[in-house]
From TrEMBL:
This is Iron complex outermembrane receptor protein. It comes from the Bacteria. It is found in: Cell outer membrane. Gene3D superfamilies: Carboxypeptidase-like, regulatory domain, TonB-dependent receptor, beta-barrel domain, TonB-dependent receptor, plug domain. Its main location: membrane. SUPFAM superfamilies: Carboxypeptidase regulatory domain-like, Porins. Residues 1-18 form the signal peptide. Residues 118-220 form the TonB-dependent receptor plug domain. Keywords: Cell outer membrane, Membrane, Receptor, Signal, TonB box, Transmembrane, Transmembrane beta strand, Transport. PANTHER family: FERRIC AEROBACTIN RECEPTOR, TONB-DEPENDENT OUTER MEMBRANE RECEPTOR. Belongs to the TonB-dependent receptor family. InterPro entries: Beta-barrel_TonB, Beta-barrel_TonB_sf, CarboxyPept-like_regulatory, Plug_dom, Plug_dom_sf, TonB-dep_rcpt-like.
Amino acid sequence: MRIYVFITTLLLTSGLFAQSSLKGQIKDEQGQPIYGANVFISDLQKGTTSDSNGNLLLTDIKEGVWKVTFSMVGFQTITKEITFTQNSAVEIVQVLKENEESLNEVVVSASRRSEYLSEIPASITVVNQKQLVDLSNSTTNINEILEFTVPGLAVSTGTFSNWGQTLRGRSLLVMIDGVPQSTPLRNGQLGIKSVSPNDISRVEVIKGATSIFGNGGNGGFINYITKKPNASKKIEGTTNIWGTSNLAKTKGALGFGAYQSLRGKIDKFNYYVSGSYEETGNKYDANGKVILPTYGLDNTRIYTALAKLEYEISDRQKISIGGNLYNSLQDTPFIPVQGSFEVYNENGDYTLTPGYGVEGSIEGQEPTGSKLYNGNLKYNLNNIFDGTTDFTADVYYQKTKNIFFYSDKFENGGQSVINAEKYGLRPNFNTTLTPSESTEITLTYGLDLLKDKTNQGLLDGRLWVPNIDMFSWAQYVQSTIKFNDEWVLKVGLRYDDMNLTIDDYNTLPYSPLGDGNFNSSVAVKGGEIGFDNLAFNAGVRYIKHQEFIPYVSYSQGFSIADLGSVLRSATADNIEDIQLEPAVTKNYEFGFLSKFKNFRLEAVGYYSVSNLGTGVVFDENINSFVPSKKPQNIYGGEVAIDYTAFDNKLQVGTSYSYVEGVTHNVGDENNLTYLGGDVISAPKLTAYVTWLPTNKISTSLRMTNLGNRSRFNSYLDANDNYTFRHTQFPVEGYTLLNWSMNYKLQENISVSLAVNNLLNEYYLPARSQWAAPLRTFTGTGEGTNAKLSVLYNF
C-alpha cells in the first residue's frame, strides 16, 4: 500500500508558481492535425498532448528559456528552445515529419501502448497499411497475406481453417483491436479469418509466449488494428471493386467483390463506416479438377461491416463506440471424395492420392463458415496526474458461431458448431516518469475482466462439448526503463485467475478415424474448477547504434489447452476425475535488427518449453483424439533481409523460417520423438522483387517456398499393413510464384492485376499431407488464378 501512496504522491507533484503559457497547433506535412502528440518540458516535468484538432495548451510555465520537445509515435521528434517571459502567451504551429524508417514502425500491442519497434526487446512483425494494400490486390485471403509477410508463421492451409497454421510451433491468439476472436475453450482454429483486409490499418504479430494478454496465446498473438476515423473533411472515402477467376479452368470460376468506406469529421464527431460483399466461384487445381470442398474457399459469400464513432468531450477526453461484423458462408454444389494413401514398406515409401469434389449435395447440410460480431465502447482520459498518465477503459462484446462440414464420424452423421460469447472490461493506465534527463520510466498497468461462454454441439441439437462458463480476472503491470537513449529494459508481471463452471453432459458416440467404431456415451457430472498463474517476462535491448540493435528476452505464457477436446473425449463420469491442467510455456530468445542506408537485416533464434502440448494426439486406448499431455521442446530461427536501390524504385527482400520440436513422456527426457505437422511446419522461404519503372506503374513478383519435412517412420498396424500415425506423415515441399502490377490512372484512381500460382504448380498444401491419415483433409492447392481490381479514393 505504501508504494501506491508513494507513486501517487510523485505523480501529483508539480510546480505551483509558473505564470506563462504555450498554445498552438501540431500538424503533419499535409497540414492535417495530429491527435495525441506529446509536448513536454523536461526541466519542468510538465507536458500535455494535442487534441483531435491538433491544438495544444500548456499553462503555468515558469519564466525562462526551456527546451520543449514535440513527439508522436510514427513521427520525427523535434526539440526547440523557447523563451517564456512573465505572464506571456507563446503561440506556435509545429509541423512533424513522418518517420518512414522501418526501425521506427509503431507498435501498440506489445505493451498496450505506443512504442517504437526498435525499442522493444521481443520478436515482432508489423504488416503496415501499404503492404496490406499491395497484397490485397492479389488476394482477400488474410491467411495467405500473413503467410508471406510473417516469418515464423506456418504456411496457409489453402482452406478456410487455420488448423496447423501455428506460430513458431504453438497456438496463437487472434484479436481485433485487442478484443480476442479465438475460441480457446474449444479451439475451432478459424480465428485468423475474422476481418476484411480492407478495414485493417496494420497487423501486429507478437511472437513467443507473452504475459501481456491472457488465455490462448502460448505461441504469440495476431492483433488486427482496424482503421481509425481520422479525416479533415466532412466526408471522405474509398471504393474498391474486383473480379476473380481460376485460369486453369474457368467453368463457374468467376467471382467478384465490392468494398466501400466513408469517414469524416463533423464538429467534435469523427466517424468511419465500411461494408463489403464478396462471392467466390469454383476452385480448381492445376489439372482443372475441383478442389476438395471440405473447409473450402469455393462458392463462398463473405459479408463484412465496420463502424466507429468518436466524440471529443474535451481536449483531454474522448469516447468512442464501434463494432464489426464478419460473415463467411460456403454453400458449395460439390461433395467431397476423400483422399487415400498407401505405404509400401518399412522405409516409408508411399503414394498419396488427394481428395476432390464432385457435383452433389448432402441432405440437410447447412452452409459452413463463421459468423462473428464485435462491439466496443471506449473512454480515453489523457494528462491526468499532472500530465504524466493516460487512462483508457473499454467494455467489449464478442460473439462467434463456427459451423463445420458434415461428418459421418458422428453416429447417424451431423454438422458440429462452436458457439462462443465473450464480455470484457479493461481499465488501463499508462504513466511516464522522467526522473532525470537520461532516464525515462514507463508503467503500463490495469485489469482484464473476461466472461467467456462456449459450447460445441451438432446442428440437430445434440451436445458434443458441454456448456463451459468461464470468468477470469487478471492484473498486470509492464515497466519499460530507457537509459541514455542506449538501453531499454522491459519487465512485466501478469496474474491470471480463472474459474470455470461446466454443466452435466453426456459424451457423444464418435468414430475419430471414420471406421464405424463409435465410442460409447458416458454420462459426466459437471462442476466447478479453477486455475491461476503468475507469468513473468523480461527483456533488454541495446539501441544506441541502428547498425546493430540486439536484444535478449525471457517470457512466459499461460493457457487452457483446448479444454473442450478434453471434455468431449472424457471416459470418467465426474469432472473432478478428469485430469485438467493449464499449459505453461517458457520462451527464451535472442535477436537483432540492423539498418544501414538501403539495407535492413533482422535475425532471431528461440527456444521454448511447455509442460503440455499444443496439438491433439490419437489415443488408441480410448479410441479418441485428445490434447497432448507430453512436455514439448521447440526451437528455431528466423532471418529477414530487405534492400532498396535506385531511390526506392527497386525493392528486394527475402525471409527464412525454421522450426523444429520434440516431445517426451514425463520423466523420460532422453527418449525424444519429433512433433507432428499440426504443430511443426516445414521450413519456409519467401522472396520478393518490386520495381517502379515510372511514377504510375509498380510491379511485384513474390515467391513462397515450402521445404521438405520427413521425420517419421512407418509402422505395422493391427492388420499388418504399413502406415503412418496421425499428423506424423512426410511433407514434400513446393514453390509458388505470384505476380501483380498496379497502374495509377490518376492520383486517386488505380487499377491492378494479379496472377497467383503463376506457373500453375500442382501441389498439396502442407496440411493436406500431414493430415493424410485422417483421409478427410487431403486436397490439392488452387491452380493459376487471377484478380483484377479498381481502387478509388475521394
